[in-house]
């Protein structure tokens, strides 16, 4: 089984080829046009996808050693994501599958973030809990099987990646600021400043409060000292990151206890965060958890994870028709 997979949900154009469940490559073109706007501009994202898609697909096929004629199916991200961005990938996948006379496989991007754990060893065993933390989502997912997942908790407002990026923006850092907060936090004191930890019912999260808290905190301190940010950047980053991680792990611990599960995975762009990874190592020895963290390149948006999901759908015979449409708010 050879599948070509395409990812175009946000601002990464990516293509990958998977052969009998083994990822052969993972070509990613990142869009830089958004940097100066401090966030992804949807219209510019879809235009950039149009420019990048054909070269990226070409490279994926060429470097795989598999010819177009040997492909068994074409897979693509159906949602969730930006409608204009999704449309580019969906339309391209449809035309290619139609031209080659092979089936189409629609993939849920959030399921794929979780299935990134099956690209390489060590792989979690079912059932496990996955904390999916990305630019658009914050979810606790009970993973019962490859394609059988249940969201047991999620954010009621912003995603944690958004909280990282918005904090970075308030600090005057470029977009996406998450990785920069991570970098500066490394040499900062996480207890230097105190920010409120939201207290949400059950397994829900809330990240909109901290954004406002950081805004007022900076405004008040800048009034006294115009150089407050530059003089305290590392401590501010460490303190905000500490608070965000606390909010995540607090609910993760609760979920693990409630479901009596010790196999814990993290997925999505924020799982690249070194503070979160460290904290999970601590928790794994404290609670006897087995913790799974994907390789860095499979944390943020990539087509390899879409290919992995497509492989399992192929095995189950789950294909879609040429009349399929993208779903910006697709649920797991
Ligand atoms: P979704 O998957 O919900 O549709 P998305 O695809 O935009 O959203 P990803 O690409 O999975 O999200 O992740 C991007 C997010 O990850 C951004 O918010 C970015 O700041 C954050 N991020 C990446 N690396 C780090 C890091 N080291 N520390 C904190 N945040 C990070
Ligand atoms: Mg992205
Ligand atoms: Fe994503």
TrEMBL record:
Listed Pfam families: TsaD
GO biological process, any: tRNA threonylcarbamoyladenosine modification
Bound cofactor: record note: Binds 1 Fe(2+) ion per subunit.
Binding sites annotated in the UniProt record for substrate: 132-136, 165, 178, 182, 273
Phylogenetic classification of the source organism: Bacteria, Pseudomonadati, Bacteroidota, Cytophagia, Cytophagales
Gcp-like domain segment(s): 22-307
Role, per record: Required for the formation of a threonylcarbamoyl group on adenosine at position 37 (t(6)A37) in tRNAs that read codons beginning with adenine. Is involved in the transfer of the threonylcarbamoyl moiety of threonylcarbamoyl-AMP (TC-AMP) to the N6 group of A37, together with TsaE and TsaB. TsaD likely plays a direct catalytic role in this reaction.
Cofactor: Fe(2+)
InterPro entries (alphabetical): ATPase_NBD, Gcp-like_dom, KAE1/TsaD, Peptidase_M22_CS, TsaD
Keywords: Acyltransferase, Cytoplasm, Iron, Metal-binding, Transferase, tRNA processing
One cellular component term from this protein's GO annotations in UniProt: cytoplasm
The organism of origin for this protein: Aquiflexum gelatinilyticum
UniProt binding sites for Fe cation: 109, 113, 301
Family: Belongs to the KAE1 / TsaD family.
First-tier enzyme category under EC: transferase
CDD domains noted in UniProt: ASKHA_NBD_TsaD_bac
Catalytic activity: L-threonylcarbamoyladenylate + adenosine(37) in tRNA = N(6)-L-threonylcarbamoyladenosine(37) in tRNA + AMP + H(+)
GO molecular function ontology, one term from the record: tRNA N(6)-L-threonylcarbamoyladenine synthase activity
Keyword Secreted in annotation: no
PANTHER family the UniProt entry points to: TRNA N6-ADENOSINE THREONYLCARBAMOYLTRANSFERASE, TRNA N6-ADENOSINE THREONYLCARBAMOYLTRANSFERASE, MITOCHONDRIAL
EC number assigned by the record: 2.3.1.234
Protein name as annotated: tRNA N6-adenosine threonylcarbamoyltransferase
Signal peptide, first to last residue: none
Record localization: Cytoplasm
